[in-house]
Amino acid sequence: MTIRVLLVDDQPLLRTGFRMILEAEQDIAVVGEAGDGLQAQDQVRALQPDVVLMDIRMPRMDGVEATRQITGPGRDGPAKVLVLTTFDLDEYVVEALRAGASGFLLKDAPANELVQAIRVVAAGEAMLAPSITRRLLDKYSAHLPTGEEQVPDTLNTLTDREVEVLKLVARGLSNAEIAADLFVSETTVKTHVGHVLTKLGLRDRVQAAVYAYESGLVRPGANGQ
Which residues form the Response regulatory domain (predicted)? Predict the structure, then answer.
């Protein structure tokens, strides 16, 4: 199945470069381009892409707000957002993840990483290495709750084991690492993660990690305890 991609960046030269890379792949088709967040919204509605390659800093509407408008609560369209950033751990990346992005990638990443990221996000997975998830959230812990807030009622829908898995996801552990920690199979972990995402209405494990921090279940810098 062909993955339909929308390119969103205010620099035409970069869009051209991304287009050349992606159109060389048989399973990827670039269906459109946009120079800012407002255009991106219109193009998503008109073209129904599977993945939006989204720049963060753009005129009129930035990538964070555009991501929120495209993938936020109440929006059931197929588009998933992969954020592009110039700097590792850009201060806006955590906001983009909160807004609904499925991951982020550096603009200077090798072509093969860009292609792989598109495929991963299109498949419904998160394009954000577990170690980076933890480092990202800890780095911007000042923007997150202190852990003293009341835990939301939605957490009561999870079993004790699912809460345990959610904490480990928030610590940045992979499925294999969680399986080893809990002495269960990877398949079992995948099942638990799937239940957590479904019950909490989350798209992927990146949003699950952000939720765990924002809900106060996990305190920044506390190793998920």
Answer: 4-122
